[in-house]
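Input/output pair, single chain:
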Amino acid sequence: MAINIVAQNKKARHDYEILEKFEAGIVLSGAEVKALRAKRANLSDAFCRFIKGELYLMNAHIAHLETANKYFTPDTRAPRKLLLHKKELEKLYVKVHKDGLTIVPLMIYFNERNYAKVSIAIAKGKKLHDKRADMKAKTLDREAKTAMKNRSY
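Output:
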């Protein structure tokens, strides 16, 4: 059984160098889970931050589902608590505060047991010349593949 990807943060892979990945649970209300199942989420400007020793997903947009509750509209960009083991939290805290790295959400998905999970990563920001070098390498690879594909014997 495969995972069901809800939202991906493609901008994170472009702007950051991914060093290490983690899988975290996320605290959601029932209406938010319904919205995720309808794939109404966006991680483009999302980031993670420590608040009182706990890790929160900030600025992630989970849209309000019209059929869920008409009388209560929650904040779509509310901070959402991420669930990790204590040792993982300590490791992330050290990496962020001592090494100056950032924690970036990569995707929200439902795992095999239908639990909503967030894939987060410890990342280091790329400089402009690094981004250009990556884009150049990708275009060269793409051109080489098309040349090999169109090659006649």
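Residues 4 and 130 are 32 Å apart (CA to CA). The chain has a mean pLDDT of 87.
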